[in-house]
């Protein structure tokens, strides 16, 4: 059991990086076993281990659980960070909200520490439970061995690795018992008001797991991402791809180019993908992106007029601190008193040289470009020339990660 997890760590993690490896530990048996195995791997390769514990503030015992995780970290010689989900909790959809908050907290802490990978203790039981929940009508995602962080933009550049995903929970706990280890049992796992405990209770001990990781998406390799964040793909390539792959590419291209945090609904994505397989021109919106197709090319860009998500709102910048604007760009101010907003309505205030560059760009990307306004009210666009801020486009890297083209820990 431990050897198979170590093999996955070897396959996915860099053995020469000096960055810490983060591991999420709740105190439950799955995450305790993972921490022990991760410490063995990290020690062998000279990597620091960072234990992250999230207190959801949902159980009276949670402070004691966090203390136990801190003690485990000390015993393992690992760094430790306690995180908490503060504020009011929703009356409905609590498990999904807790999961989203947990991913955000873990991503922020891991990025702050300089980690590129967060280890999670999901097991084969979690996969089987997720499948049972979906069969019952839930939209619960299936955990994967390797995937980008679902928190956006907090998890940009971060990957999740689940080395125990092929191991049953009972086997893990037997291994812990053999090694004299203890763990906590969260009473929420027995609360049958929620779908996961019901699926867990109904799960048979002898269920076989057919774990098939999605293949890297070839259409993403054939895509081109421009400096403005537009994603383009030959229409023939789209038509020639299997329907599932083409629809998957469309959803990823839309959420990445649109800068959103959630994939479009599969039904809407599939309907639009069918239209794109035809020969007629297509103009549509999907997940905050504008999708257009002519005879030879599909183009996916940020919908400049879409205001529902609020991503194109003005945003004040702090000098030297990278901020994500509109989910697509990481913008860093070089001076004080700078803000960024959409270029629509401000293009005439650009300097002449930047207006000339802007005129050469497709009309559908111009309004969604970032306009940086300095303390004197001067307008510049960092994607068109010199400005009091620099901007790095996140769309290409995000698309490659989501499409499975990044298969190991980045250096």
Description:
It is globular, with a radius of gyration of 23 Å. The protein folds into three domains: 2-202, 3-Layer(aba) Sandwich (Rossmann fold), CATH 3.40.50; 218-307 and 398-402, no CATH class; 315-394, no CATH class. 37% of the residues lie in helices and 18% in strands. The chain is of the alpha+beta class and 411 residues long. The chain has helices spanning 2-12, 29-45, 62-76, 94-113, 124-135, 169-178, 195-202, 218-222, 235-240, 243-258, 266-276, 352-359, 363-366, 395-402; strands at residues 21-24, 49-55, 79-84, 117-119, 146-148, 159-161, 224-225, 231-234, 282-286, 289-293, 297-302, 315-317, 322-325, 329-333, 338-342, 370-373, 379-380, 389-393. It contains 14 helices and 18 strands. It has a six-stranded mixed sheet, sandwiched between helices.
The helix count comes to 14
Main β-sheet description: 6 strands, mixed
> Rounded to an integer, what's the Rg over CA atoms?
23 Å
For this structure, the CATH topology of the largest domain is Rossmann fold
The N- to C-terminal Cα distance equals 28 Å
Concise description?
This protein is an alpha+beta fold and 411 residues long. It has helices at residues 2-12, 29-45, 62-76, 94-113, 124-135, 169-178, 195-202, 218-222, 235-240, 243-258, 266-276, 352-359, 363-366, 395-402, and strands at residues 21-24, 49-55, 79-84, 117-119, 146-148, 159-161, 224-225, 231-234, 282-286, 289-293, 297-302, 315-317, 322-325, 329-333, 338-342, 370-373, 379-380, 389-393. Helix 5 (124-135) crosses helix 7 (195-202).
């Amino acid at each position: 059991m431990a050897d198979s997890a170590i093999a996955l760590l070897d396959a996915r993690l860099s053995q020469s990086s000096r960055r810490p490896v983060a591991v999420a530990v709740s105190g439950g048996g799955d995450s305790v076993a993972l921490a022990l195995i991760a410490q063995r791997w990290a020690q062998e390769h000279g990597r620091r281990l960072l234990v992250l514990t999230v207190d959801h503030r949902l159980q009276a015992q949670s402070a004691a659980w966090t203390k136990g995780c801190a003690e485990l970290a000390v015993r393992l010689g690992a760094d430790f960070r306690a995180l908490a989900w503060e504020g009011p909790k929703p009356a409905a959809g609590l498990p999904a909200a807790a999961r989203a908050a947990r991913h955000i907290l873990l991503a922020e802490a891991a990025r702050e520490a300089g980690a590129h990978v967060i280890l999670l203790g999901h097991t084969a039981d979690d996969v089987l439970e997720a499948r049972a929940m979906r069969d019952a009508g839930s939209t619960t995602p299936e955990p994967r061995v390797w995937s980008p962080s679902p928190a956006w933009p907090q998890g940009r550049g971060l990957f999740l690795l689940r080395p125990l995903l092929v191991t049953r929970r009972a086997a893990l706990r037997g291994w812990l018992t053999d090694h004299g280890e203890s763990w906590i049992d969260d009473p929420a796992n027995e609360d049958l008001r929620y779908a996961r405990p019901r699926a867990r209770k109904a799960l048979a001990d002898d269920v076989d797991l057919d774990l098939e990781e999605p293949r890297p998406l070839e259409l993403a390799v054939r895509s081109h991402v421009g400096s403005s964040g537009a994603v383009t793909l030959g229409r023939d390539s789209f038509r020639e791809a299997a329907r599932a792959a083409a629809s998957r590419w469309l959803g990823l291209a839309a959420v990445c180019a649109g800068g959103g945090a959630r994939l479009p609904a599969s039904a809407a994505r599939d309907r639009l993908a069918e239209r794109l397989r035809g020969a007629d021109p297509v103009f549509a919106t999907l997940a905050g992106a504008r999708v257009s197709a002519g005879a030879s090319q599909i183009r996916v860009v940020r919908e400049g007029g879409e205001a529902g998500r609020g991503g194109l709102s003005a945003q004040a910048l702090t000098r030297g601190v990278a901020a994500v604007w509109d989910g697509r760009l990481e913008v860093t101010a070089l001076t004080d008193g700078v803000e960024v907003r959409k270029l629509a309505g401000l293009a005439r205030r650009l300097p002449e040289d930047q207006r000339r560059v802007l005129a050469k760009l497709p009309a559908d990307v111009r309004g969604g470009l970032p306009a940086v306004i300095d303390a004197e009210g001067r307008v510049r666009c960092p994607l068109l020339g010199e400005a009091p801020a620099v901007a790095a486009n996140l769309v290409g890297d995000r698309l490659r990660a989501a499409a499975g083209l990044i298969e190991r820990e980045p250096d």
